[in-house]
C-alpha cells in the first residue's frame, strides 16, 4: 500500500463495536447494552454495487474499501456508521504490515 497522508482520511465515521455479552444459561451468549461507539477519521471508497430482487422487493448492496488508522483496532465483528447514516458491516480487515493503517472491506446492504 502506498503512503497515506493525514488529509486522505477525510470522512468521520462511528465505529460500533460488538456489545458485551453474558451467558444466557443455555450454552449461548446474549448481548447486554449497546455496542461501544468511537469516532475515527477514515478514507472511504465505494468499490462496486449490485442489485437483486428478493421477495418482490429490490435489494442492493455496495462494497466499500475503508482505510483507517491501525490504532482503531477494527475487527470483523464491528460495524461502521457513516456521516450520511449508512451502516456498513466489516467483512475483512487487512493490516498494512507496518502497523500504521488497516484496510477494511465493508458491505452496505441498504438495510
UniProtKB/TrEMBL annotation:
It comes from the Bacteria. This is Phage head closure protein. InterPro entries: Phage_SPP1_head-tail_adaptor (IPR008767), SSP1_head-tail_sf (IPR038666). It comes from Hymenobacter aerilatus. It holds the Pfam family Phage_HCP. Residues 1-34 are annotated as: Disordered.
